[in-house]
Amino acid sequence: MAHTRSILRPIAFLQRDARHFQILFLGTFLLYGLLALHWDAEWQRYALILVTCFAVQALFIQWKGLAWNSMKSAAITALGLCLLLKAGSVWTLALGASVAIASKFLIRWKGKHIFNPGNLGIAAAVLLTGDAWVSPGQWGSGATLVFLVGAAGLMVVLRVGRIDTSLVFLGTFAAFDYVRTVLYLGWGSDVWMHKLTNGSLLLFTFFMITDPMTTPKAPKARLFWSAGIAVLAFVLSWKFWINATPIWALLIFCAFNPILDHLIHGEPFHWARPGNRISSNLIPIQHQDHA
Amino acid sequence: MRNLFLLATIIAAMRSMAFCGFYVAKADATLFNDRSEVILVRDGERTIITMSNDFKGDVRDFAMVVPVPVVLRESDIRIVERRVFDMLDSYSSPRLVEYYDENPCHPPVMYEMDVATSRAEVTSDKFLENKKSPQSLGVTIEAQYAVGEYDILILSATESAGLKQWLTENGYRIPETANDVLEPYIKSNLKFFVVKVDLSRMQQTGSAFLRPIQIRFDSHKFMLPIRLGMANSTGSQDMIVYAFTRTGRVECVNYRTTKVPTDRNIPLFVKQKFGYFYKDLFARAHRREGKNTVFLEYAWNVTPSFGGMKCDPCVGPPPMPREFAEAGVDWGGQNGGGQVFFTRLHVRYGREKFPQDLVFQVTPNTEHFQARYVLTHPATGDLTCSSGQDYLETLYYRRHRELEELNALTGWDITKRQSYTNDVKNQLSPERRNNIGGPWIPWKGPGGGGTPMLGWLALMGLFAVVLRILQQWPQRRLA
User: B388: closest CA among B99, B106, B100?
Assistant: First the structure.
């Protein structure tokens, strides 16, 4: 029936390409931040990030002769940066966005990009300019947030087959922090829960670390890899009081991906495969032809 | 036993932190710790914390316990004058601004905008007579100083029960629940900075009030431990943080940092009760944000050589090198040094919503911010001309919006304030008066003071268009 079909059309549209889901979720998070958490709506900055990501992606599409379809990946990268990256100057944002997209095409190993684009874009903006920062506290901690990010995140990671990465990372981080905070220091478990329900940590767990293109191919390697990120993030925050440590830990561990893939062989990830159609990285995902 | 109050200001798990506002009432004395103020200077790893508490009892009853990351040297501790707090408070307080409309029937040849300001009154024995040797309780006296009117001890402890017993035996009354908080701090290898007043030395200073204490240390950590302060408090406490950095704003990393509502037009009658207005506005904003938010009240570049305005409008003089020196801003001299950025944060914290100590970060964010509320006086004189009547109609609607804004910001009942709009209505000619409709404000969200509704509708429309375009993309491939 035509009527039924018209209702199902948006669902079919979402199903058709994994990235539609991501755009929807990340867009929802941005709206949640603006509407419910009263972030400053920095429209010009969001527009600049989007335009830069699109422009750099278009440049490489022309150069490498790729499908325009991959512009969706740039949209996801851009939304991820809108959510996370803050800077004094707009040029810093443009730099972060450019590095994020360009790294997918320039920093590659055996047909696979090494760094999570958004992660690298943020790191580049923060380290190279000193003018950028991330606000780990911007989401706060709360039940609504856990539900929102958790539900959306689970949908994504289950489809993309990276639930192991999310759970091992969060589980390891939670376990280490529980031992330190509750068992050793003697704080109540509410202190521990407050840390774990931080929106930035959850977003990272479900939307950044799970990028199938920048996680090791073999499941066993992924377990060590995600546990390693959790341990490093924990140590950096506990010993050195660095903020947003998962981002730095992921950056470091992504650099070891080629070695891990070399040592432990695994099936390469293909976006085209049924059931693998959702790209789960916050920033992402080169089109399958290229990735 | 003497009546004693213990104000425990806790500094630091492991290597650095500060906490303010822990009153421990002894016997039947009651004290409510309304507000504590902290000046927080962060320069690389160096942290300088100046603590001031509005202690209102007998100074003989005052004591303070501050966990510190290291055994402070005598030179790391000093006393500063209270005036630096008053000065920073008056400079950065939420402000009320007044503007005057001009009479459209008699446009002045030269109109001078009068900006007046006022600011919100935010309401803001022998020490060592041990009953038991400290060693037997696992308590070590690491150092002992006399600084200004204060006697200072630096203790380390191996377990909370021993520390608690030592403090109790020395005349302090520690709430039972403090044990749970002392333990994690001890495990974090903190020392305890214990402060009491020496009355004779206090008389020599000639000061009737307790002066703020300043400490400095180097540490990775940039935080304020607030948990100990909640040990004997069921309600919420307020803390104002005046932070100075070289680069930009200070923000909280484990709680949201939100701007307090600003640049709102409010009715004229608020002028008489601006203090109450801001107090209610803050309480409402605090509830609206879930009671677990740190509020930004002010952020400005206060570098002496900075060419721009130091505030707009200023309700107090901006801090100068003398205040910088007092606050511990070593680099803020007139002739040298780098940028000095000032941030004022206001946090209302309670046990339930603030389980973790406050952790901060210095950002490169140099965007200025101030909490500012605007009063606009109507034009005076004859307004019977046509443009004058137009003006009155606009004024009528504007006043409606101001009332709704007031209600949205503070929750004040505005139904009794209809004369505020009716006064304007009565100045209209009878025809105009009859034609004037109810105040319908299509571009305002519910409550009138919220986010413009049309903006969000436009955004959703844009989102739909983007999705639609993306839908087409798979078909458009490069040849």
Answer: B106
- The residue type of A261 is D
Q: A74, A102, A134 — which closes off a domain? A: A134
B82: part of which helix (H) or strand (E)?
none
Domain that holds residue A168: 138-263
In chain B (479 residues long), the average pLDDT of successive 10-residue segments reads 30 27 26 70 93 75 79 92 89 86 72 41 42 77 90 88 83 72 88 85 78 91 82 78 95 95 92 88 92 94 79 78 89 73 94 90 94 89 88 92 94 90 88 71 44 68 74 51
Q: Do residues B343 and B450 both lie within one domain?
A: no
ipTM given for this complex: 0.87
Considering the domain architecture, whether residues B247 and B396 belong to the same structural domain is answered as: no
CA–CA separation, B233 and B353 (whole Å): 13
The predicted pLDDT at position B232 comes to 59
Q: Do A186 and B184 touch (CB under 8 A)?
A: yes
CA distance A70 to A101: 11
Interface test with B, best of A26, A141, A277 (most B CBs within 10 A): A141
Angle between helix axes A90-106 and A71-84 (nearest 10 degrees) is 140
Phi-psi map region of A231: left, alpha, beta (phi>0 left; psi -120 to 50 alpha): alpha
Domain tally, chain B? 2
Q: How far apart are CA B235 and CA B352, in angstroms?
A: 9
Question: What is the token pair recorded at B304?
Answer: 């002496």
Instruction: Assess B158–A contact: CB distance below 8 Å, yes or no.
Output: no
Bridge partners of residue B52, in order along the sequence: B37
Secondary structure of residue A73 in the 3-state scheme: helix
Write the DSSP symbol of residue A179. I
Which of B372, B397, B421 is the endpoint of a domain?
B372
Q: Into how many domains does chain A fold?
A: 2
Contact B12/B180 with Cβ under 8 angstroms? no
Write out pLDDT tens, residues B357-398: 899 999 999 999 999 898 889 988 888 888 999 999 999 999
Q: Quick check: is B466 in a domain?
A: no
Cβ–Cβ < 8 Å for B193, B187: no
- Amino acid identity of residue B422, one-letter, is N
Q: With an 8 Å Cβ cutoff, are B253 and A136 in contact?
A: yes
- Look up the domain containing B431 and give its range: 381-460
Q: For residues B174 and B240, state if they share a domain.
A: yes
Scan residues 450-469 of B and list those with Cβ closer than 8 Å to A.
Answer: 451, 455-456, 459, 463, 466-467
AA identity, residue A60: F
Strands (E), B129-220: 139-147, 150-157, 191-197, 213-218
Q: Does B132 touch chain A (CB under 8 A)?
A: no
A130 shares a domain with A194: no
Distance CA B419, CA A79 (A): 49
B404 is a domain residue: yes
